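Appendix B. One record, verbatim.
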Amino acid sequence: MPRINCFSVCFEQHAMLIPVLVAHLRFHRCLETLESTMVYTFQNRYLLQLAMTHPSYRENFGTNPDHARNALTNCGIRQPEYGDRRIHYASTRKRGINTLINIMAKFGAAQETESEITHNERLEFLGDAVVEFITSIHLFHIFPDLEEGGLATYRAAIVQNQHLAVLAQALNLDQYMLYAHGSDLCHDSELRHAMANCFEALMGALFLDGTIDAADRVFGNTLFGTNPLLLWRWAHYPKHPLQQEEPKGDRHWVSSHSVLQKLSEFETSIGIGFNHIRLLARAFTDRSLGYNNLTRGSNQRLEFLGDTVLQLISSEYLYRHFPDHHEGHLSLLRSSLVNNRTQSLVCDDLGMPLYAMRGDPKSEMKTKDRADLLEAFLGALYIDKGLKYCHTFCRVCFFPRLSNSITKQEWNDPKSKLQQCCLTLRAMDGREPDIPVYKVTESLGPTNTRTYIVAVYFRGKRLATAQGHSIQEAEMNAAALALEVSGHLFPQLHHQKRIMDKTKKIPFKFE
């Protein structure tokens, strides 16, 4: 028998690493060209590499350019994995109800933690909020007389995927993207969608590596780099009209207006003093009150601004402290953290409704009205104090509520939870699964204050009946009641409770 030289085998296996190593070095050399195009040098180059890595690159090796990786994976040095197999693949698998429940049951880390997910979907989640924030800030100041609807329309035109793909093409991101060489991205529409996502991930990487100013500058140069006049107009936007009227502050008007005196009491209660207190007054002015010379308008535009401020801050926090969550999981957590219900609770805790100025002060403020009031306050706080104060406000008023939301699974609305429970009871014969059916059984009252009664059925049996001021609200209430009174029919509820009991821990305290 011929002698087998163990050293030759080792040399061959190590030689197979050379193409991968050379490709890695060439890629980072190319990234220097991208940095020079953006006129920005990354302090952490890994963030830029992560932003350029498509999800298909790591999970599905492709054809010729990836043969070396295929050979290393299938024939290379064995890397035994000890312990539970589910632990090793926790950062790659993201489908299935059990995976969803397990991941969403995890609490956030007390300190910023690096994720083991090696593609750009998480950065895309953050970058989406960054792009929306940058666009909203500039539009808000450039068009001081445009109402909320017009601002939202302009923003939608800028942040839509078709336009982001154009911006990505301006940076030639398709030449730097890492993706599997399969048939998926051969179609132009699929490639442009991936380029738009890559551009959002790049904005997220710029935000993490530098500041929001770095992402803002690169975004502006990419958007208007070929037109110096438009670029200057975009970058040098004016201050808020109330700030222009009183450049050094307007607190000298407090002694002359009872409204401002009352709002100064609110400032004392929350520990924040505004330089331009009329901005705070405008945040509390409902559109039903009409125009007045004190605030120069209502709080609708500030709502538009405050919403995007809250989206950015919450997205950054979730990205940094929930490393095991994929993009979809982070979106679910964010929706539970910044929804109308949570915002209205914060509004009530701070006593904001007491200071609201409305056309009909005796009427009760709805949940959405209180949420809008809080968003307007955040918008005014950002204009007057900057992003750092908004960060501190959210760290005190919003983030501590997240542990309770995870424990109660508030990220999963009652209708979704009921449908998930019903799907787990599907038959194994391949038939279409049974799902809950909602029927409006009655509607009461006039059009403006109508109450709807909805019944929910599963497999022909009525589970519960509930009412609400809208059909959607009534359906949600019916689903919640069905889960409460018919929980014994769904083993999935007990499974979810066991998972929460295993992962439950004492939430960390914010310092």
